[in-house]
Amino acid sequence: MKTFNAGTITFQYPDTWEVEKADTLSNPDCIATLSKGDENLINAVMFPTATDLENFKAFMEDSITDDGGVIIASDFTQIAGKDAIKLHANRDTPEINFDIHTYVFIEDKKIYIFELRTLDISGESEGEFKNIIESFEILK
């Protein structure tokens, strides 16, 4: 296991994942990008918010369906000792069909969104993603 530390957050991730250069040019809120092969990509973003988990959950679901995605599950959960939204969706485009697994946290008027886009249907990458999220800490 390796440790990712961005100064504001930290989490553990498996050696099979690589930290990529965060694409802050097209997404200035991006704090971490990790990949595993060509079929798995995790993006983590953080930005100020005045919303709460309940309102954001509805907004996030609408955004996914408006974008052509299908929501498989969307629930409130507790992970890493925090309240969170856990969402699983599927997106089918002419080029590719992929699953989206998302965890959302809101703490101290900041929103943290972790999203895995994967072609892996075995569940292995999803399990690794969940383990990463379980190790997520906000540094004060």
Share in β-strands? over 45%
Low-confidence stretches: none
Number of helices: 2
* Biggest pleated sheet: 7 strands, antiparallel
Q: Mean pLDDT, as a whole number?
A: 95
For the record, give the distance between the C-alpha atoms at the N and C termini, rounded to a whole number: 23 Å
Structure write-up:
The protein has 140 residues and is α+β, with helices and mostly antiparallel strands. Helices cover 18% and strands 51% of the residues. It contains two helices and ten strands, in the order E-E-E-E-E-H-E-E-E-E-H-E. Strand 4 and strand 5 form a beta hairpin. 24% of the residues are buried.
Overview in brief:
The chain has helices at residues 53-66, 124-134; strands spanning 2-5, 9-13, 18-20, 30-36, 40-48, 69-79, 82-92, 97-107, 110-118, 137-138. With 140 residues, the protein is α+β, with helices and mostly antiparallel strands.
